[in-house]
Amino acid sequence: MRNWKFAMASTILGSALVLGACGSTEEAATGSETEETTADTASDEAVVEGSVAGDGSSTVAPIMEGIVEEYAAAQPGVQVTVGVSGTGGGFEKFIQGETAFSNASRPIKEEEAASLEEAGIDYTEFLLAYDGLSVVVSQDNDWVEDLTVEDLKKLWVEDGTTKKWSDINPDWPDEEVVFYAPGTDSGTFDYFNEVILEEEDLVKSATLSEDDNTLVQGIQADPNAIGFFGYAYYVANQDTLKVVTIDGVEPTNETIESGEYAPLSRPLFTYANNAKLAEDPAAYDFMQYTLENAGAMADAVGYVALPQEEYDKGLADLEALK
């Protein structure tokens, strides 16, 4: 498995990930007869062709980026496309029947589930990994080390005032805070809104983006900036960002898995269209590969793998859809 943490740090994800492969004509022409014989005698079940479309959370994207690229090598006859329009944007496409799976950094909402029922789409929720939503500042920020949940709410809630660092601690600079946050279609936005803002409005001055790399770059460049996003994006950029402990607890694999990093620890999901899994061998095969490799890929990109029994349960639920 390639070094996915390095790959994340050095590569900016585009608006959609399209990874698929077909063996080159030149390679096929120069292959030995032995290789051709081996391929001919491979079981038909191992050969899958087709295309599979997904969309959704940019937080889940690092896991899917790695899985899709490695799956392309395992099944070159299948092209998998994965958009990153945010959890909410992904569910919109899922409800329209445009995608076979939808990645999410929060559980599906009641209204989304109702829309799927109205559209006649049955689905299955699969757990992929744990994340610790990370609050970060520039490494040039030498005053913030720890914030409480109450501090976060005071900073991020829109109350008609201009927020300054000195509002939190009078010993901190009398400088305006610069905010960066995931876009409103993001499950990360929804989660932060629920557990920190308690459904109040986010500061209007915040720069919002569905692309977490845009947030990373903005925070890196400004000592007065603060932002939040998935743990893997902090891990991939920890040489240029500083993570803020919350109530004295730093996000780590151990604190995220144990739940000690509360209330910002959360599960990550993908939701799959049952009919597409049952009827499309390519969709089924890709989802099976995803569940078999999600734990290793989560560890590789900086998230936290689930206990193996959770992946086994997902595989059993998938098997039941055959």
From TrEMBL:
<keyword id="KW-1003">Cell membrane</keyword>
<dbReference type="InterPro" id="IPR024370">
    <property type="entry name" value="PBP_domain"/>
</dbReference>
<dbReference type="GO" id="GO:0006817">
    <property type="term" value="P:phosphate ion transport"/>
</dbReference>
<dbReference type="GO" id="GO:0042301">
    <property type="term" value="F:phosphate ion binding"/>
</dbReference>
<keyword id="KW-0472">Membrane</keyword>
<keyword id="KW-0564">Palmitate</keyword>
<dbReference type="Pfam" id="PF12849">
    <property type="entry name" value="PBP_like_2"/>
</dbReference>
<comment type="function">
    <text>Part of the ABC transporter complex PstSACB involved in phosphate import.</text>
</comment>
<keyword id="KW-0449">Lipoprotein</keyword>
<comment type="similarity">
    <text>Belongs to the PstS family.</text>
</comment>
<feature type="domain" description="PBP">
    <location>
        <begin position="41"/>
        <end position="291"/>
    </location>
</feature>
<protein>
    <recommendedName>
        <fullName>Phosphate-binding protein</fullName>
    </recommendedName>
</protein>
<keyword id="KW-0592">Phosphate transport</keyword>
<dbReference type="InterPro" id="IPR050811">
    <property type="entry name" value="Phosphate_ABC_transporter"/>
</dbReference>
<keyword id="KW-0732">Signal</keyword>
<keyword id="KW-0813">Transport</keyword>
<comment type="function">
    <text>Involved in the system for phosphate transport across the cytoplasmic membrane.</text>
</comment>
<dbReference type="GO" id="GO:0005886">
    <property type="term" value="C:plasma membrane"/>
</dbReference>
<dbReference type="InterPro" id="IPR011862">
    <property type="entry name" value="Phos-bd"/>
</dbReference>
<feature type="signal peptide">
    <location>
        <begin position="1"/>
        <end position="21"/>
    </location>
</feature>
<comment type="subunit">
    <text>The complex is composed of two ATP-binding proteins (PstB), two transmembrane proteins (PstC and PstA) and a solute-binding protein (PstS).</text>
</comment>
